[in-house]
Structures are given as C-alpha cells and as structure tokens.
Design goal:
The chain is an alpha/beta fold. The chain is 28% helix and 24% strand. It has 3 domains: 15-195, Vaccinia Virus protein VP39 (Rossmann fold); 208-244 and 352-416 and 519-582, FAD/NAD(P)-binding domain (3-Layer(bba) Sandwich), CATH 3.50.50; 418-516, D-Amino Acid Oxidase, Chain A, domain 2. The strands form 6 sheets. It has an 8-stranded mixed sheet with strand order 14-15-13-23-24-25-22-26, sandwiched between helices. The chain has a 6-stranded mixed sheet with strand order 17-10-9-21-28-27, covered by helices on one side. A hairpin with a 7-residue loop joins strand 19 and strand 20 (393-395). The chain is globular, with a radius of gyration of 25 Å.
C-alpha cells in the first residue's frame, strides 16, 4: 500500500490496464469502454440533452455550464468541448465545465488513457499541457483562447459542491455506477445538485464595462472581459498601458508559500499555478520560465525552509529542495546556500505584456485621462475626468484597478485600510554582475541579464520603503539593493560594486505597491459601510510585490463575478479577498 500523502498533495488514482483501457483498482471499475465509450456518451448525454442546439442558441457574451461528479480521464469533458467547437456560437461566448475528482490521474496516466481516442488528440494535447499539479483544491484552466474554462476540484465531490460557486445548465452524474459509489447518490448530493442548477432566466443585453487602471491587473481584467464578449473601456492617467508599478523592465514571478498549509498558503499556491499556465503562451516573448531559486540565505530562512519541507508535500513539478551545489548548477551562479527550486517560475516583462493585453477590438483605450470621481447615476456609473478635455464616461459596471490610488476613487464616505509602499529597482549593466541563468530570490530578487547585445541589464528588486513618497530613484536606494544582494549572494557582483562603489549614472525605477493591513489582496464587488454589495462596482488591488503572480487568477475571479459565471475560487478563499474588510472600523471618540 502506498504511504498516505501530506497536504497539499492528493492521492492519485491507482490504475490497472485491460485491453489498453484504464480501470480503477480502488473501485474495480473501468473508466470507459475502450471501443464504445465515446459513442455511448455522445448518445446518452449529448444527443438526449440536445446539447448542439443549446450550444448554438447561446447569446453574445453568454455561457453554458456543465458539471460532472468525477472527472476521471477527462473523456467526457473533451467530448463536450469537441461538440462546442462544432456547434458553439460564432460570437464570443464561454463553455464552463465544473468537475470534482477525489483521485485524479497522474499526468502520465492521463496521457496514456486519452491516447486511445485519436479523434480528440488536438484537444487532449491542450488539456495535458495545462493539467494542474496534483494538489488539493480548486484549479481553473483556461483553454481554447478563453472560449473554454475548466474548473477542476481535486477532493471529495461534497466538498466541491459545498465550496464552489456556480449554476449548471447540464449535469453529468453517472461517472461510476451508483452501486459502486453510492455516496454520490445520497440525499445531500441530490440537494447540492439542485442548489447548483441554473434557473431558466431570459438573456439580457451585454453590459458595458469600464476598467480604471492599465497596470497588470487592469490590463488582465480588460482582456479577460473582452474575450468573454464584453465591450470594455480601459482608462488610465498615463499615455500608455503598464506605465506605473507594472512598467519595470523585469519582474520576478513567485510567491513565498507558508510553512502551514492554511487558506493564505492555498491562495498563494492557486495564484502561482494559475499564473504559470496563463503566461505559458507568452514564452520567450514576454515570459521567461528560467526556473527560480528561493535561497535559504540566512539562519532564519534556513529554519523556515526546513519546517516547510517537514510539514508539507508538494509535487516536484512545483518545487523541491536543492543543495548548494545543485542550486549552483541550476542557476549558473556561485552561491552560499541551497534552497527551494521552482522549475516553473521565472521572470516577466510586465510593461510589454500590458501593452499586448490592451490590444483587442473590444477594448476602447482612454489614456491621459485623470479620473476625478466615480458615482452612480440613473442606474449606471459615471466616471468624471479631472479636466474639461476629459468628458464623462458611462458604464454599467466599473472595476477600479488603480493600485495605491484606489481609495481616492471609491465613491461614498469612509476611509480604507490601504497603504502605498515605495519600491525601487536597480538596473545593472551586465559587466558589473555575473549574471545568473535563473531568478535568484531571498531578501531581494535578481533576474538574469536581458536585452540587446551589448546593452543587457540585470534587475535587482526591490526596496521596501514604508515612509517615503520619493518618486525618483535615489543613490541610497541603489546602494541598499546592492548591499542586500551582496549579503545574500556575495560573489555575484564585481569587486568595486561589492565594496559599495556605486556608479553615479546607475539607472533604476520607482513604483508604489498597494498593500493592505493584512497583506492579502482585494478582489470582488465593493461592499458599503453596511456590508451590502454595491451593484456594478468592483475592486482589484492590494497585491503588494506579488502582483505578477496574483493578478492573472484574481482578474479571472473578478471577471467571473462581473459576468455572473462560475467562480475560479472556492468560497473559503474568496472570503480572504472580500472588499468589506478594507473599510476602516469606526472608532469612538
């Protein structure tokens, strides 16, 4: 018997193979008939439920949701996706597939099982390329350029239906026969199925949406909504996207996972794995998955990593501990310690990505527009500009993604628990540093040198200035970055730099991170002072220095809510993002 797994890992399916087809050792039941499985499913579900007709009748920016108790090999999902390809509407619309799986297949078994169906090979390859690591909880997988979204819950079906937010148009409940898995047919499961079933509601006109802020969060959200069929107005005070904190030449994409696997750690892990999948199509364009080492660079960090390894079990495709020699081989740098190696992480060119995301026929860009006020008027939202040359903009829904400027734009009274933290990065010409091959993280991060030949720069980031609002780079901040990097990786700088001899013309950049009182992001509908949701107004901010990692998933989550489609996050994690917690409590005088 295999040893029990430790969270966040989850037990995989144990299979035997008969005639090339997989069979569950635990349940003694085949996943599908190797010759008739696909044909039977098409007849029993797709034809009987008139799925082609229902797909073709979906309105602009609409969606169709299928839910399945038991994802198995994904065969049913691929068959429905194939039907969506053939019969889905030509306009923008989204197929959602929500599924639970207590014992997910390993990637190797998934490949072997789906290889039996050559007619689905193109779709199977895309699913396999985005298949999540075997860790518990909710995984959102975006496929077919955003026309298909798979929400895959690794865990018990009852847990899935109790924590996921969705309404299904059609159900698949016959993965295994009731006599074999009777718990799937007990009364609680029937009740949960009813609670998650969509009522027959007539379609409504597609709302117009406005996104304030064209940093990484705002551009991701605007692009997400545009692909779902929404008309989006993207607004920013700068002249182009990615001009504020998201405008750095490079940014490291990583999170620091907690020693305890709690909700905070689960949110960070979900964001990490989603962002790795999201950025994959931009590989070698704006995304550089070089791998990333989190060094055990101090006694404190060494102790933390030891406890982390003892108390958690992560798949090695996510992370694993390495010795100093192994870390040096992976990074190509002379190091003083080992650490945790994240093979799927790396660095991003955020400014370039923002500009790319903003290019979509459904996104109207309004730049050099300083927002003065956001207020409700006649059932819509009016966005007023600061000058006469900034005419009012009207929208049905507004998302404020303005970083540390967000509190100034929230309508109504009250104060909010946001704070701006200055961060300065330092650009080092390659001759001044022994550039690594991968990202090195500790008290600072160091990215590999990049750029045109002879002009390559490595980025050190970033200071954490709680009490400074200086917008320009300073020599002292450059010195702090270099001093901290030298203490972490002593042999990586040239001799003069290591002794504090800072070139006068050393370049860098300043950005202001938006953080919250509890250092957790804010995403979702705005709540008023009474805790009631304000219709049509959303926030997406407060990601601090981890915006490149958190923003893709949280933009997906806010887009789900704004479009009233299945949520990418379970309720336990959505609560951690709730906007109401940002209101400053009234203090009696």
């Amino acid at each position: 018997m295999p040893l029990p797994t430790i969270p966040p890992a989850i037990e995989s399916a144990e299979l035997s193979w008969h005639g090339g087809a997989p069979k569950s050792k635990r349940l003694g039941h085949a996943y599908f008939h190797p010759e008739k499985g696909l044909e039977e499913f098409r007849y029993d579900f797709i034809e009987h439920n008139k799925i082609p007709t229902r797909f073709s009748s979906i309105t602009e920016a609409g969606s169709f949701v299928v839910a399945e108790a038991g994802f198995g090999t994904g065969l049913h999902f691929l068959a429905i996706w194939q039907t969506w390809q053939a019969w889905g509407p030509s306009h923008a619309a989204t197929l959602h597939f929500v599924a639970s799986e207590r014992f997910p297949l390993t990637l190797q078994d998934l490949k072997k099982a789906l290889s039996l169906w050559p007619e689905l090979s193109d779709l199977a390859e895309e699913l396999i390329a985005s298949y999540p690591p075997l860790v518990r909880g909710t995984h959102r997988i975006v496929l077919a350029g955003g026309r298909v979204r798979l929400t895959l819950f690794f865990g018990d079906t009852h847990d899935a239906w109790n924590t996921l937010s969705f309404k299904a148009d059609a159900w698949l409940l016959h993965g295994f026969e009731p006599v074999i898995t009777p718990e799937s047919w007990q009364k609680p499961a029937i009740r949960e199925t009813g609670q998650h079933s969509k009522p027959d509601i007539p379609s409504t006109p597609v709302p117009a949406a406005a996104v304030i802020g064209a940093g990484i969060a705002g551009c991701l959200l605007a692009n997400n909504l545009a692909h779902r069929g929404y008309a989006v107005t993207l607004i920013d005070a700068a002249d182009e996207p990615g001009s504020a904190a998201s405008g750095n030449l490079q940014g490291a994409m990583y999170v620091k996972l907690g020693v305890e696997f709690n909700h905070q750690t689960e949110l960070a892990l979900s964001a990490l794995t989603f962002s790795q999948r999201y950025y994959a199509p931009y590989r070698d364009e704006y995304w550089h998955p070089t791998g990333l080492i989190q060094l055990s660079w101090s006694d404190t960090e060494q102790s933390r990593q030891r406890r982390f390894i003892e108390r958690n079990q992560y798949p090695e495709d996510l992370l694993y501990p390495v010795t100093r020699r192994e870390a040096e081989a992976l990074t190509g740098a002379c190091l003083m310690s080992g650490g945790l190696w994240f093979p799927g992480c790396g660095w991003l060119e955020p400014g370039k990505l923002c500009k790319s995301l903003a290019v979509h026929p459904s996104i109207r860009k309004v730049f050099a527009y300083s927002v003065k006020q956001v207020e409700p008027t006649q059932g819509k939202w009016r966005i007023s500009g600061a000058g006469s040359d900034n005419p009012d903009i009207h929208a049905d829904q507004v998302a404020i993604c303005a970083g540390h400027l967000t509190p100034q734009l929230i309508p109504g009274s009250g104060t909010f628990r946001f704070k701006a933290i200055r961060g300065q990065v330092t650009y080092l010409p390659e001759p001044l540093i022994d550039s690594p091959q991968a990202v090195i993280c500790g008290a600072r991060y160091l990215n590999p040198a990049y750029g045109p030949k002879g002009e390559q720069l490595a980025v050190i980031g970033a200071t954490f200035d709680l009490n400074s609002d200086e917008p320009d780079p300073t020599t002292e901040s450059h010195r702090e970055n270099i001093r901290t990097l030298s203490s972490m990786v002593p042999n990586i700088l040239c001799a003069d730099m290591a002794t504090g001899d800072i070139p006068e013309q050393l370049a860098g950049r300043v950005g202001f991170r938006c953080t919250t009182h509890d250092y957790q992001p804010v995403a979702g509908p705005l709540c008023d002072a009474q805790g009631q949701e304000v219709k049509g107004l959303y926030l997406l901010t407060g990601m601090g220095s981890k915006g490149l990692t958190y923003a893709p998933l949280l933009a997906e989550f806010v887009a789900d809510q704004l479009t009233q489609q299945p949520c990418a996050l379970p309720t336990s994690l959505a609560k951690r993002l709730a906007t109401g917690r940002m209101r400053q409590p009234n203090v009696a005088s």
